[in-house]
Write a structure and sequence with these properties.
This protein has six helices and seven strands, in the order ααβααβααβββββ. It is α/β, with parallel strands linked by helices and 199 residues long. Strands 1, 2, 3, 4, 5, 6 and 7 form a seven-stranded mixed β-sheet that branches.
Length: 199
Amino acid sequence: MTQTLPAVQDAWAQQPITTPPAVRDPDEYAVWSVVLTNKYVTGSVKELVIADRTIILKSDFVAKHLRSFENATDTVSDLLDKNQVQYAVENKFAVNVPCTIWSKETANALFHLPANHGLDPEAVKNMNDGWHQFHKEHPDTGGGGIIGMSRVGFNADKTQAVVYIATSASPMIANGKCFLLKKKNGSWEIEREDLIWFS
């Protein structure tokens, strides 16, 4: 992979440091919480670090994969429509570990992200140093790093949901996944998990 900080770059790439409108839909937080609890709070994880804004889904690669979800056309369309711009993420997660919301300002200060996202030797050193400091300050992530999330796409009656989540734990440890969920007896359950890319 040529990207070095996918969750950070996707959530913060070349965006001005302003606060976008917040995600207010409790159903989105419910879906995020189910995925975080079942897929990211594992083993030694005692803290989740989550990007303070949603990921913009501009990648044709991700969109093409999402369109392969059978019987989820409307749900995927809603996801892609919602994720053309960023939204602020608030700490409204129902998970059993503390969640830290990570801002663009914090990421810029720690990683010294270059404006052009270039990978000259100094930028690589800054990112490696930043990740070392991150893991020192957040040992309870279990090495999981930073989580970036898309907004959640729903079908018309909100019985089906799809979300894209990317994680970054170092310049060479990152991945992006899509999750398809279905509401059964009033609760969200993960039906499908697809690894889209990794490094």
